[in-house]
Write a structure and sequence with these properties.
Blueprint: H1 4-40, H2 43-80
Length: about 90
């Protein structure tokens, strides 16, 4: 059976992974927007691409973060039983 500490560590690691992936995705989107600006010469298109990708990645990361929190609460309740406040 898993312990409360194991659940906390797993949640912490997964949350860091989610936000690291968000950061990497935004960095990649910035590179793509920069390439669009350099090669196509349309700065408005580059900004639009970056803003859309940033918004999509942020929504996805936030949803994953909250879903992970809900899952962690379920796991904690299983580990701690009735001692965990609802």
């Amino acid at each position: 059976m898993t312990s409360y500490s194991d659940v906390q560590k797993a949640v912490s690691v997964e949350r860091r992974r989610v936000w690291a992936a968000w950061f990497a995705g935004n960095l990649l989107a910035l590179f793509v927007a920069s390439a669009i600006n350099v090669f196509a010469g349309i700065p408005l298109l580059a900004v639009a691409v970056f803003v859309v990708v940033f918004a999509l990645l942020t929504v996805a990361a936030y949803r994953m973060h909250t879903a992970l929190g809900r899952r962690a609460d379920r796991e904690r309740r299983q580990v701690l039983g009735e001692d965990y406040p609802a």
